[in-house]
Design brief:
Radius of gyration: 28 Å
Structural class: alpha+beta
Distance between the termini: 48 Å
Mean pLDDT: 81
Shape: globular
Order of helices and strands: HHHHHHHHHHEHHEEEHHEHEEEEEEHHH
Strand content: 15-25%
Number of helices: 18
Number of strands: 11
Helix content: 40-55%
Amino acid sequence: MRNKSEQMSLFDTYKGVTASMEEDKPKLFRLLDEHIDWDTLVPARFYMAFYQNTGRPRKYPLVAFLKSLVLQKIFCYVNDSVLLVTLRHSREMRKFCGFSKVPDAAKLTRFKQDFLPYIMEVFERLVELTEPICREMDAELAGSLIYDTTGIESYVAENNPKFFSSKLRQAKLMAKTNPNTDPYRTVYGLLPDCAAASPAVKQQYINGHFCYAQKAGLLTNGLGIVRHIAFFDDAFKKSHPEIPIDKRTDNPDADKELGDSRTLLPVLRDFKLRHPGLHYKTFLGDAAFDSYDTYSALLREFQFERAVIPMSRRNTAGKLVAHLDENGIPLCPNDGSQLKFHSVCGGKNRSMRLKFICPETERVKSPNGTTWRCRCDQPCSASAYGRCVYIYPDADLRLYPGILRGSDQWAALYAKRTAVERSIGSFKHVLGLEQRKTSNSLTTNIRP
């Protein structure tokens, strides 16, 4: 008898949701109501704060506002006005949200500004609810944490290309009186630190160009599911006074790298404080986070088992030890070839060690069983076993961050770091976060 059951994949589910959005909008609303328990997502203190302001029933329910914000992101409505116009002309959408009457733009804006901490709490609850689902989908990827920073360009006059062109012309005039002056380096000092319309919109150097944006840090797992978002606004800087906020050099690339590495540990501490029950084995980051203090904090304070971060040449002081290559692998003193990784050694009251042996050493039969013998034509050790080197990772966490640099496992793990880049791209372009015509930092903090 033919088996009529069919296993559904994540791709099949995605195609079904996409088809519902394009062909059958009411079906999408039914799916959202069927699979999302809105009462579970909204904490009781949110209900109390929302209704106690008036002491009487509100004309617009709390869940209706939240549902409208979700639909705004699903349908990529950049402006609130587009959302409200659609609500007025769509009976199905009004019914799904629970609006008997569509609110005006001012009420929607006041809701986002007045109840921002509670909306952020809804996002934090979503993280806890989706964590078991991510672990069930792929335990290894869900057990990885990826961090990167980005900037959300605001709708301010300083982002007009004419503004930068005027500063560049000013720098070129200065260069005429001083031929040794580089106008492109000088213009970096002429740009104001923040936009005139909003002090929260800071000067940034993102993806090779200057802009004025609200900078944020993003934590995702290996699946690309967002776990934490931190906007580096005045409240964040006030709670973390150890972060330098001034320009440190005359090089925008160096300033950007310095800023990224300074924000990592404060963001991780905030994330751990909000979600103490979540634990991750692997941390992934780009070369901007390569520093000795970062490895020590990641592996000891935050209890990551491994930190997959490429080395930055700027942070390498002096030359490497002669018998080690750039990945920390011991070299043969005769021909400089890499020794072969053998195993991880340990024992009672002994620190963990990485054992490397001569690549020509192999297991052979002996009267007592099997043993190891070096078959090298020019042995670099008098021992029949061949050359053997032990490395203690705790002595240099940067060189040995819980995983062997340059190995196949390292390459496979680091390839997953692009998940955070895709999430950032989705926020900006798919959800329309970067096309918003506003410089208001409070409404930008609404979780996409």
